[in-house]
Amino acid sequence: MSTLGKKTVEDIEVKGRNVLVRCDFNVPMKDGVITNDNRIVAALPTIKKLIENGGRVILCSHLGKPKNGPEEKFSLAPVAVRLSELLGKPVVFANDDNVAGENAKAAVAAMQDGDVVLLQNTRFRKEETKNLPEFSKDLADLVGTDGAYVNDAFGSAHRAHCSTAGVTDYIKDTAVGYLMEKEIRYLGNAVNDPVRPFVAILGGAKVADKLNVIENLLNKVDTLIIGGGMAYTFLAAKGCEVGKSLVDLEKVDYCKDMLKKAEEKGVSLLLPVDTTVASAFPDPIDAEIAVEVVDSDKIPADMMGLDIGPKTMELFAGAVKSAKTVVWNGPMGVFEFSNFAEGTLEVCRVVAELADATTVIGGGDSVNAVKRLGFADKMTHISTGGGASLEFLEGKELPGVAAANDK
After folding, report:
1. pLDDT in tens, 332-366
2. Which of 109, 208, 349, 404 maximizes the CB count within 10 A of its CB?
3. Is 385 in the active site?
4. Is 48 annotated in the active site?
């Protein structure tokens, strides 16, 4: 169950073989300097395992969204330098604009067991995002007929691209890396085989972003907590006055259906009972602004809800405290503004204090909140893939996972 039956790096023999490894080196950069190397560090266990076992390790990744083919600012050259420092050994950077060109071929031909080569940004090839066979074959040719492929890029596992899925049509020995294995284990077990009570907490701005997640989780959870901007569409569906709060008018009927479905299934669906409101977003971000707390069903016409209130924090905390499995995706308010961060902070605190529960955090904003508020080391698992973790929670099969060989 732990990896949905997929082969991992533990299951393949790599000594003397070329191994293409898809990593997630989509790191933030400023003026050619990496500002956060977390994703590079996260890939190290898989890379080190393959080196130690005598594999000839060929790494590939995308970086950013180059629109016009090769662009210097999206080069993976700085990643090669940082990776070399972290591994304590040379990482040869093959800087071909077409990724699998003469430099890459020469670097791979010169490899000894345990050597590492990093290819140029896979998105420098327009075929990558279209999953066209030309680029998939070029990548596979670097590996050769007796090589292997390892996907360790969960953040891109929901994309059917050449380097995440297409290449496996031409490389027969495929597996997932440690990072991917960990993601599948925690997200998969949390959603498909949870220790109960199972509580899911959903936040963020838009209902539309989480339609399928809500529907899928209502079949699995004991309690579903909804906060953030998306809560106001649910409150509107209940006939509440929500003022100027964010409401997706096209999704009001959907929310009515979900409220009914929760009732039919005996799922406790919790919405905010009080709300921290203001007349507008503060501008600039640290501007003083008048804030008040009102009942969630009576938000004044000239006010908008921007965070959950204290009674809601208490309600949500009470529901979370008895949980044995918690999946959290999306903040409770506009947490970037200190006036509206308290709800997200309180949820963070309560989830972090669960001593014997499995706590899984997914989605960019929740992950940022947890890290920024200093609770990262208190959570069981923090997902590295925002879009991928959402699709996993929707119950979708991810192309990058599906492409790995079964055990």
Report:
1. 999 888 889 999 999 999 999 998 999 999 877 78
2. 404
3. no
4. no
